[in-house]
Specification:
Mean pLDDT: 92
Order of helices and strands: HHHHHHHHHH
Shape: elongated
Largest sheet: none
Helix content: over 70%
Structural class: mainly alpha
Length: about 200
C-alpha cells in the first residue's frame, strides 16, 4: 500500500510524482519481477529512503499504478454503455466514439498501459475485469435490442478486447485513433448490432 505521510506540500507531491513517473518507465522497461527499488530511485533521481516515505515497497508502487490504470479503464467502459433509446442512425457514431475513448486511454500513457494491460502479472486480472465490465454493458444492450442475442455477450466482449488489443498497439504515427475507432466501429456494427444486420443485403 501507499504510505500515509505528512509529505503533502508542493515539494512532497513533486517528489511523489517523480517516483510515479520513474516507476512507470522502469516497470514498463524491465517488468515487475526484474525491477528493483534501486532502479526506480536511480531513474527518479532521489534517495532510497525517500522512496519509502511514499511507498511501503516495490509491490505497493506497482499496485498503485495498476489500480490507477484499472480505475481509468473501468470508468471509460462505464461511459461506453449504449442507452436503450439509441436511435439506429446514431448507433455507429456512438460506437465509434466509444472505441475512440478506449483507444485514447490505451494510448495516453503507453508505458502505463503496458504495465496494466499487456505485461504479467497485472494483465491477466485486468483483462478478466475488463471482460466482466464489457459483458455487463453488452447484456444490457442485448436486453435493449441493440445487440444480437444469438452470440453470447462474453464472446462479443472478447471480440471487443481483441480489437482494442491489436489496434491499441499500432503506433500513433502510423494511424490516428479516430481512424482506428472508425474501423473498429464498422466491424462491430456490421457483426453485432441488430439494426445494421437488418439493413444488410441478404444473399440470394
Amino acid at each position: 500500500m501507499e504510505q500515509a505521510t505528512s509529505q503533502c506540500g508542493p515539494r512532497g507531491q513533486a517528489t511523489k510524482e517523480r517516483l510515479r513517473r520513474a516507476s512507470i518507465r522502469v516497470f514498463a522497461l524491465k517488468g515487475f519481477h526484474d525491477t528493483k527499488v534501486s532502479d526506480i530511485v536511480a531513474e527518479a533521481g532521489v534517495s532510497q529512503p525517500a522512496f519509502y516515505i511514499y511507498f511501503a515497497s516495490k509491490e505497493a508502487a506497482y499496485e498503485a499504478l495498476v489500480r490507477e490504470f484499472r480505475t481509468a479503464l473501468r470508468e471509460a467502459t462505464q461511459q461506453c454503455l449504449l442507452m436503450p433509446d439509441t436511435a439506429p442512425e446514431a448507433l455507429y457514431g456512438k460506437v465509434r466514439a466509444s472505441f475512440e475513448l478506449a483507444l485514447n486511454l490505451l494510448g495516453r500513457d503507453r508505458d502505463l498501459t503496458k504495465i496494466g494491460f499487456y505485461q504479467v502479472p497485472a494483465s491477466q486480472v485486468t483483462r478478466q475485469q475488463f471482460l466482466g465490465w464489457i459483458v455487463s454493458n453488452m447484456m444490457q444492450e442485448q436486453r435493449s435490442g441493440i445487440l444480437r442475442t444469438d452470440i453470447p455477450a462474453t464472446h462479443q466482449a472478447r471480440l471487443v478486447i481483441g480489437l482494442l488489443d491489436q489496434m491499441g498497439q499500432i503506433p500513433e504515427q502510423d494511424a490516428a485513433s479516430e481512424d482506428l475507432a472508425g474501423i473498429c466501429a464498422r466491424m462491430f456494427c456490421d457483426a453485432l448490432a441488430t439494426q445494421f444486420i437488418a439493413s444488410m443485403p441478404q444473399p440470394d
